[in-house]
Automatic annotation (TrEMBL):
Residues 150-215, 488-554 form the WYL domain. This is Transcriptional regulator-like protein. It comes from Arthrobacter crystallopoietes BAB-32. Residues 246-321, 584-655 form the WCX domain. Residues 350-461 form the PafC HTH domain.
Length: 669
């Protein structure tokens, strides 16, 4: 956002606060210089309407009202003002325990598009004096990501209450259809974001996974009315994958296919079991999901029943082999990973920061320049630019006694003549939602959701923001840990006590159970899974362990001290680069392009057909044949050539296992 626009918006805000009678559009044009300089009436109207909506989006309650006419023939004059009472953030005070959960709730969004809104919300509470010093650490760091391109536009549609349309890909094939939807809610579960709403084409409520939206979001005309009984959390509960639909029969190689054995039980064989194999049965809720898991084990797992499961697994192997036989596409990867570059400061960042800065200095006259810059997360030079901008803003008339005065002699900051904006501004809709939904998400976190401070902080925040008109019921996120609650709680306890644990851990890439002694350093959640970052005694290095792959856990009674000099920052990636890493270049179908984000692709390029070439850095390429098999032709190996050959041999052996079992009488021919 340019300094000139910030200046214009700030002067408009001060003018609308300055008098209860407000101003007409014509009066504002005569008062504020950039409006006077607009080339035409149409240009002025366009700028003014955009500025008005920008202020409203920031949470500023700009009112439009009509002044009574003096004569019958008069037309009422439309005027604008800001309700001072609605503008100000109500008095709030949080205990140290409540401050801790609020801080944690804001950090949930650090890797998501609501991250800046959450950071602004906490800063505003801090400036307001609502937070306590010395918040107590909780010892757990859950995170949400919003990598799906459709998220931001759908959030706007949800808060703006308007219908949308988009292209949507079916779950089990590549077919896409145009869907017309009235958005009711957005939610995250199992590491994925979902949209729930009324599908006008199908005439009923439907839920859509955002990663399957293949187009931009088109805004449609009309208004959306959300049923009073709707909650996004209930819509997420309906996605529960635990609903059992059937039982599958499998053959597993002795001592192999460990992940399938977790939910399997020995079966009563219907035919003689080939030597070296175990026959088991396991429940499933979705044939295609189970087919992915069985296929990922290659020649060490064979599906026997039901017939549709067998067909789904064989289809994946054959599809992957057919795709591998085709000539790879031509491509050119960029010389280096694309940089996000410098993110421009937006109107949702710069003006709110200035308002918070004025509130903070007004409440803390003489605040030190360097400490203030650090508090607001900006450089010393940027803070001075912000202070200089305040010099040219003030109440209408803009004379010497009406402009804001700022001094920072001896690095101590003082602000005068800023009474109109010295009070802390209320939170914007996205700021309030980020904290409210963050707190609600923490209710699903083992060891945190039961804390009384969580409920009391949420209650205070809802009271202060007016419940945001019920929108907090339309946005939800779950850190669903029902299958790993005991492990997550035990890991949290070990972090708090500094106790070494002995775990039995599944290494999926080797299909091997290992026994490790670990010193848990922190517990965190990302992409729908819980992890612990821990010192591994076996590897003599820090490693990350996924909670649902821990098959056994016991306390040792021994305590440890965390390694010196270690950062307590949340891991920005689940992958730690090492000298022994291997590179693999994959071709991903348009449907699976988001795999590049899941595997933190080093480089990527999009092909004309929408598919993607992605270069991955991996600790081992042993996982690549498993990944290729899961997706049956939608993921192929491009480089290195030897990995492509190894993958084809792995797939051929897996398909051959079905022929061998069929000949032995284990499969119906």
């Amino acid at each position: 956002m340019s300094a000139s626009k910030t200046e214009r918006l700030l002067n408009l805000l001060i003018a609308l606060l300055e008098r209860q009678r407000g101003y007409s559009k014509e009066e504002l044009r005569s008062l504020i210089q950039p409006y006077r300089e607009a080339a035409t009436e149409e240009a002025f109207n366009r700028i003014f309407e955009r500025d008005k909506e920008d202020l409203r989006e920031m949470g500023v309650p700009v009112e439009t009202f009509s002044e009574e006419a003096f004569f019958d023939a008069d037309h009422a004059v439309k005027r604008y003002r800001i309700d001072r009472k609605a503008y100000r953030l109500p008095e709030l005070a949080f205990t140290p325990e409540e401050t801790a959960v609020l801080s944690l709730a804001s950090r949930i969004w650090q890797q998501a598009s609501l991250g800046s809104a959450a950071a602004r919300a906490v800063r505003r509470l801090d400036v307001h004096g609502a937070l306590s010093d010395g918040d107590s650490p909780i010892g757990i760091e859950p995170r949400l990501r919003t990598a799906e391109p459709a998220f931001d536009e759908l959030l706007k549609a949800l808060t703006g209450r308007y219908p949308v349309s988009f292209e949507y890909r079916a779950a089990n094939n590549a077919d896409t259809t145009t869907r017309h939807v009235e958005p009711w809610g957005l939610g995250n579960r199992f590491g994925h974001w979902y949209l729930s709403g009324f599908d006008t084409d199908r005439g009923g409520q439907r839920t859509f996974r955002l990663s399957r939206i293949t187009s931009g979001i088109k805004k449609l005309s009309g208004d959306v009315s959300v049923p009073e009984e709707f909650t996004m959390r209930a819509a997420l509960d309906a996605l529960d994958p635990e609903r059992e639909q059937g039982t599958a029969r499998l053959l597993l190689r002795h001592g192999r296919a460990q992940s399938l054995r977790t939910s399997a039980v020995p079966a009563s064989p219907k035919a003689s079991v080939p030597e070296g194999w175990d026959e088991v049965q396991c429940p499933y809720s979705d044939v295609e999901i189970l087919a992915e898991e069985v296929a990922s084990h290659g020649a060490t797992a064979v599906a026997l029943e039901p017939a549709e499961l067998v067909a789904a697994v064989v289809r994946r192997f054959q599809g992957a082999l057919d795709a591998a036989a085709r000539t790879p596409p031509s491509y050119t990867l960029p010389a280096a990973a694309a940089s996000a570059g410098h993110k421009k400061t937006s109107s949702l960042d710069h003006l709110p920061r200035l308002l918070d800065l004025v509130s903070y200095i007004s409440a803390n006259p003489g605040a030190e320049l360097g400490a203030t810059a650090e508090k607001f997360g900006v450089s010393r030079a940027q803070l001075i630019k912000d202070l200089n901008l305040l010099f040219v803003c003030g109440t209408p008339g803009y004379g010497p006694d009406q402009l804001i005065e700022v001094h920072w002699d001896n690095d101590s900051i003082f602000i005068e003549n800023a009474e109109e904006i010295s009070s802390t501004v209320r939170m914007s809709l996205d700021e309030a939602l980020s904290l409210v939904v963050g707190l609600q998400a923490l209710e699903t976190v083992p060891g945190v959701g039961e804390r009384p401070a969580l409920r009391s902080a949420l209650s205070k925040l809802l009271d202060a923001t007016g419940g945001e008109h019920g929108l907090h019921r339309s946005l939800a996120a779950d850190f669903d840990a029902r299958t790993t609650t005991a492990e997550v709680q035990a890991l949290q306890d070990a972090v708090a006590a500094g106790e070494t644990l002995r775990i039995e851990y599944l290494v999926s890439s080797r299909d091997e159970m290992t026994v490790r002694e670990i010193d848990p350093l922190q517990v965190f959640a990302v992409n729908g899974h819980w992890y612990t970052e821990a010192w591994c005694h076996d590897k003599q290095a820090v490693r990350q362990f996924r909670a649902d792959k821990i098959r056994g856990l016991e306390r040792t009674g021994r305590t440890f001290q965390p390694p010196g000099g270690r950062s307590s920052e949340f891991p920005q990636s689940l992958f730690t680069p090492r000298e022994t890493d291997q590179l693999a270049v994959l071709h991903l179908s348009p449907r699976l392009a988001d795999l590049a984000d899941q595997y933190n692709a080093e480089r990527r390029c999009t092909l004309p057909d929408g598919s993607l070439i992605a270069e991955l850095r991996l600790g081992t390429t042993a996982i690549i044949p498993q990944l290729v098999a899961r997706h049956g032709g939608e993921v192929t190996v491009v480089e290195p050539p030897e990995l492509a050959v190894t993958t084809r041999e792995w797939l051929t052996a897996a398909l051959a296992a079905y022929s061998e079992i069929s000949k032995a009488g284990g499969l119906d021919s």
